[in-house]
Specification:
heterodimer; A: 294 residues; mainly alpha; B: 268 residues; 77% helix; globular
Chain lengths: 294, 268
């Protein structure tokens, strides 16, 4: 079909193209522009990009503030650490699960996969909310532990970093399992058997065969957990304490509570900058996947 | 499994318990008579009744469904076009930028998507007076922008895995390109379009962060209302609402699974 380009093909390209230029590219350009403005009390609450004489009048004050303010630097570092920690936990839990699903009988496998996908279709917000009832000081877990006599008084779980980790792992575990399952399911089991027949220990066979073959799945799954976890707003807000600072929440507050639009924009641009490498890696593995199928 | 590994089995059991215990506990507590959400006060369905009379929740649910329906339909139209353009039209000018823009919303943190679109709306309002107020339209546009990316990926990979020979044969027999698209290509990718529509619908219904940015006064979606209630802790009527949603989703997924299993068996 290539080569011949008729009117309707042009339309099919132009419509989504225009949509994305207006509603995706332009908004990103606008954030970038506003991140170089000063906040003022006006409507809209930031200085125009061009001064009275029509000359561009950018300020880098927002960026110098972000990179020198201790609170912001710590928040960025903590977001990276927590997202990375959640990714590792998802991998530790998700790898054996994906392996078990891939090796199950065909019938069982379909049910197990269905149960992994099912939570996707149930409201994310409500699933995070469910943990409040579990981790409350007088919630299900504490009641059970006290009833069993393991503790005398409630453990503080809710509104701690521990709760954020639970929420992140719980919400993003399926994103880790599905790509891992896809690579493990394609793997030739005879290779592992052959290695063990030739005298490799199970751990050697895992290290030299299973792990390298599963690597594309590990990479894709880890990125699919890490990237959204970095910008997460709902989980730190509902499960974390007031001091549990993650950058998504700080951005939200900077915009809605402090009404500092330029600073919120700069926070977004720096977050995007931190995510450029992981996003590029994910895009590459995705293109390879689609072109590999063809 | 050749050698049954107890390690793998126990991690599986733990993993599924981890995924499902919160849902089960919400369902149980939705039937709790006590207002204190963590004390069992006997069986009751009164929170379901309370939900049915809660205008705020019902209005928000109606708005959410309207937005999700419009989003899914718009995103499926635009996403199918984009998927066909990427999988079938070969090279065209600006293809690299196009495919970059199509997949970027998939990985963009929600807070950034929401903030950037709100700032666009504010700028547009100053320039051309539109959108005069934020609500249904602005949320639908925002949701369509990220949902069409998912539809595109689904359609594109369906087309990539599909033989082009049927379409080529139709063209060789003199079919006009638009006829070929409607008679051959669209029926072949219909399952992908339906899957994309459902995905877009669910994503739209699920979104809190983007809607919170781009909505205005009076335009609260269901997740926004739920969030304003649960930020203060556990509330029994939200347990009831969650149970209803879990029931609908499980039923839908089971039916879809059963139907697809039957059709697979009929056409081996």
């Amino acid at each position: 079909m290539a080569g011949r380009r008729d009117f309707w093909q042009r339309v099919a390209i132009a419509l989504p193209y225009l949509w994305l230029l207006v509603f995706f590219l332009a908004p990103v350009a606008i954030i970038l522009k506003i991140s170089f403005a000063d906040p003022i009390i006006a409507q809209p609450p930031f200085t125009p990009f061009f001064d009275d004489q029509g000359r561009p009048d950018p300020t880098i004050a927002n960026y110098t503030f972000l990179l020198t303010d201790k609170l912001y630097v710590i928040t960025y570092l903590k977001s990276v650490l927590m997202a990375a920690g959640a990714t590792v936990l998802c991998l530790l839990l998700g790898f054996p699960m994906a392996y078990g699903i891939a090796r199950a009988q065909a019938r069982t496998r379909n049910v197990l996969l269905l149960l992994i996908v099912l939570p996707f279709w149930i409201s994310f917000l409500l699933r995070v909310y469910a943990w409040i009832g579990l981790m409350n000081n007088y919630g299900v877990i504490n009641n059970l532990l006290m009833w069993a006599g393991l503790i005398n008084q409630p453990m503080q779980m809710l509104y701690t970093d521990f709760a954020i980790y639970i929420g992140l792992v719980y919400s993003y575990l399926p994103f880790m399992i599905l790509p891992l399952y896809a690579t493990l399911e394609r793997m030739d089991l005879d290779l592992v058997d052959a290695a063990q027949d030739l005298g490799a220990s199970p751990s050697q066979a895992f290290r030299d065969i299973t792990w390298p073959l599963a690597r594309p799945g590990v990479i894709a799954g880890s990125l699919l957990v890490f990237i959204p976890a970095m910008g997460e707003y709902v989980i730190p807000y509902l499960l974390g304490g007031p001091a549990s600072l993650m950058i998504g929440r700080v951005l939200f507050d900077e915009f809605f509570v402090n009404h500092d639009w330029p600073l919120a924009s700069a926070v977004a641009i720096v977050l995007l900058f931190l995510l450029v490498v992981p996003i590029a890696l994910l895009q590459r593995s995705r293109t390879q996947e689609i072109e590999g199928e063809a | 499994m050749k050698r049954r590994s107890y390690f793998v089995l126990s991690v599986l059991a733990f993993g599924y318990a981890f995924l499902y215990i919160p849902l089960v506990s919400v369902i149980i507590y939705s039937f709790n008579d006590s207002r204190l959400a963590t004390v069992w006060g006997g069986f009751s369905t009164r929170w379901y009744g309370a939900l049915l009379h809660n205008r705020e929740v019902l209005d928000a649910a109606a708005l959410s469904l309207e937005v999700a329906f419009s989003t899914a339909t718009l995103a499926t139209i635009l996403g199918t076009m984009a998927g066909m353009a990427l999988a079938r039209f070969g090279r065209f000018r600006g293809r690299t930028l196009f495919s970059g823009m199509i997949t970027s919303p998939l990985v963009m943190p929600e807070v950034i998507t929401g903030l950037s679109l709100l700032l666009l709306y504010v700028s547009l309002q100053q320039l051309i007076g539109w959108p005069a107020q934020r609500g249904f339209t602005t949320i639908t546009i925002a949701h369509t922008t990220f949902a069409m990316a998912y539809v595109t990926v689904v359609v594109q990979s369906r087309l990539a895995g599909m033989d082009e020979s049927l379409e080529e044969a139709a063209m060789d027999l003199g079919g006009r390109p638009l006829r070929v698209v409607f008679d051959i290509t669209l029926p072949l990718i219909a399952p992908a379009m339906i899957a994309g529509w459902l995905l877009a619908f669910t994503l739209s219904l699920d979104d809190l962060v983007i809607a919170s940015f781009v909505s205005g006064p009076g335009g609260s979606t269901l997740p926004m209302v739920i969030f304003s209630k649960v930020r203060l802790g556990v509330t029994p009527d939200i347990n009831a609402l969650a149970t209803i949603i879990i029931a609908i989703v499980s039923l839908g997924v089971l039916v879809a699974w059963w139907v697809s299993g039957r059709s697979r068996r009929r056409t081996p």
